[in-house]
Prior knowledge:
Helix content: 25-40%
Bound molecules: flavin-adenine dinucleotide
Radius of gyration: 25 Å
Number of strands: 19
Strand content: 15-25%
Oligomer: single chain
Amino acid sequence: MSNVTRDLGMDRPIARRDFLNGVAIGIAGASLAFSQTTDSANYPPLRTGLRGEYPASVTELDRIRQGAYSKFPVAASDIHEEYDLVIVGGGISGLSAAYFYRTALGPNEKILVLDNHDDFGGHAKRNEFHYQGRTYIGFGGTMGIETPFPYSYAAKQLVKDLGVDVSRNAEFLNHDLEEKYDLRGATFFDKEHFGEDRLVTGNPRRPEYFAKAPLSDAARRDLIRLHGKNPDYMAGKSVEEKRAALKTMSYQDYLVNVAKISPQALPFFLGEGGRNNKRVDTMPALEAAEHGQAGFNGLGLNMQDQFNEGSYLFHFPDGNASIARLLVSRLIPGAIPGQQSMDTIVQAGVAYEKLDEPNSATRIRLSSPVCCVQHDGDPDHSSGVRVAYLNGGKSYAIRARHCILACWNAMIPSLMPEIPERQKEALAYPVKVPMMYTNVLVKRWTAARKLGVSTVSAPGMYHSRLNLDPGTTPGGYRGMTTPEEPILIHLVRNPNKPGLPRKEQNRIGQQELLSMTFADFELKIRQQLGRVLGPGGFDPAEDIAAITVNRWPHGYAYTYDTLADPDVPPEQRPHVIGRQRFGRVTIANADAGAAAFTNQAMDEANRAVQELLVLQGLT
Ligand SMILES: Cc1cc2nc3c(=O)[nH]c(=O)nc-3n(C[C@H](O)[C@H](O)[C@H](O)COP(=O)(O)OP(=O)(O)OC[C@H]3O[C@@H](n4cnc5c(N)ncnc54)[C@H](O)[C@@H]3O)c2cc1C
């Protein structure tokens, strides 16, 4: 180990756990004082190190994709269990499907949910840390109820049934960082892109902000011009002509070719993400305009029709993991007893050993990737579906009257080679967006306090954003501390490869996340925190107590855009062709709605269940 990595604390004992092929190769460091009786052996949210799609959870998925199980791995005579419904995927969509099915047909229906992870919830994952007698909770994926598309009646009703009243959101937000400690947003200009490392606080809409930034005179002039009152850069065109042109050019092309900023100003936009993590070079300029990004306010575009994303919001400290937990409490009351609601779920215990009990009508079986789904005979006349899955290195088979695939669309052709070719092609069309949400438990945040920052965007750095996470307070949870005490810092990375088509960038980003080790990520985290917060006294070697990296190579569902996808009628979109019922199998999950949101995951679950009810003549 070099002096540099040692100075960053790479040799320090922290809470980390790397899994290699399912085997733990390191355990929580001696510096951790766990106060609760739960530990990471029986409580997955406490597992630290490389989480999200941790290595052991995806090894078999890769093999399944490569066709290793194209032949059913178990003989029909080996079938050991029978269900009314088997659901592949235990994310919000799979859990919602179980809920809708039970609600329609009653609690005695035998339902099994299979998921490849050691925790339920899919992207909706909770990260928990026990340190010096306190519990700190963060979100490892899906952050909250928030959507550009209004929640449907079914999704709103589900949220309500789960005891969540979104109108109370403001009650639980913690504004202490801004109000009590006067911390603000800032941008970190890095030396690789801007010539020197400098943290600049303030509002980019004001000229004095750019005056403080390390920029050439030309770049500074352009950024001030762009963030102020703009002239009409497309004068002479009608609004329709402007919109049509903006649809087919990237935001980057708009900035350089239409607004005529100098290339030296472009790095400022590097970390900027549009919807679905599109970047400056992959985001259509019209979308950037609709998001209120810099450079468009003189064009006279009418943006009044936009749905207000702030109108239906709720954020639990563990994100929508609390929604997943509420679903589980309704499906398997023994695992999370009591009438749980938004006021109790955050601090409720989960008995993981009760998720898969033989006497329970609904069961959730974790660490069980499904490798094959096949009708008994002709799909149109078959009486059931066989499902094979892997667990602990062995293959198992079960039979179900019906099956819902609530996993990822691109996975389905490998699981069910019998699906018609056109449908398989459509299912394989999307490329999920790679993402990484990291939670770092730091022992104190005096450095952030001294620098006056709570959120830092870092356009050129490995993590494009980091923020102190004070936690929200439903059920009395308190993550907020004084600066001398621990807090979680949340870091975000969206790997991409500028210049390539969007799907290609997604694929390269997936590979990046899948090929890196926890130590690789840890080094980058320590380096970045050291550079950004070091001037305030942060010491990466001394101040880090624990790290949980949630990598999501298969993150957001793919959404279409006017630059990368053909403009076809809605019924010809790949997700619509792909999600058709096939025999006794229907398809849920957010990909089936081509929208990366919880309400979509719920709506697709609802549709998949309705299709099965129609099939049974029950509507
Ligand atoms: C980092 C991140 C942040 C997000 N933030 C938000 C947010 O704030 N708000 C919002 O509305 N949405 C957010 N989303 C979008 C999120 O994808 C959806 O909200 C929703 O959680 C998707 O649920 P799902 O069940 O469709 O998919 P998933 O959560 O992906 O669940 C599918 C499950 O199926 C499993 N699976 C796949 N193949 C197999 C197999 N062969 N066998 C068994 N299991 C399998 C997967 O591993 C996964 O566990 C976020 C997503 C990510 C990645």
